[in-house]
Write a structure and sequence with these properties.
This protein is an alpha+beta fold and 111 residues long. 41% of the residues lie in helices and 13% in strands. α2 crosses α3. The longest helix has 11 residues. It is elongated. InterPro entries: Cro/C1-type_HTH, Lambda_DNA-bd_dom_sf. One of its GO terms (molecular function) is DNA binding.
């Protein structure tokens, strides 16, 4: 059975718990730890959900916010449901295909 996995990026929530409310407040704290990101990069990381994140940045965020990676990333996993047909039965086999094909048209001259 297939599993559907996902995650929720909770950086904004954890920042608010530590009274850090803007991305610009985070930039100098990251620089103190050797992470040199532009204000726009930090803003995207705070306001969105990153698809890729270096472990150095994750470690710096955990140090700044005194938290663990599990506090920043909430993961979910569930079984993917099996697709069912509308009737719950097996799909019906196709009808005689020859009957479904168009017939050639005959073009007659004007009389």
């Amino acid at each position: 059975m297939k599993r559907k996995v996902g995650y929720t990026w909770r950086l904004r929530e954890v920042m608010a718990q530590h009274r850090i409310f803007t991305a610009t407040e985070l930039v100098p704290l990251l620089r103190e730890r050797g992470i040199d990101l532009s204000a726009s990069q930090v803003h995207r990381m705070v306001s969105g959900t990153p698809e890729r994140l270096s472990l150095q940045v994750l470690s710096a965020l955990c140090d700044i916010l005194s938290c663990t990676p599990a506090d920043l990333v909430a993961t979910t996993a569930e079984n993917a449901g099996v697709r069912k047909t509308a009737t719950g039965d097996l799909p019906t086999p196709p009808a005689n295909v020859a009957k479904l094909r168009p017939r050639a048209a005959r073009i007659l001259p004007d009389a």
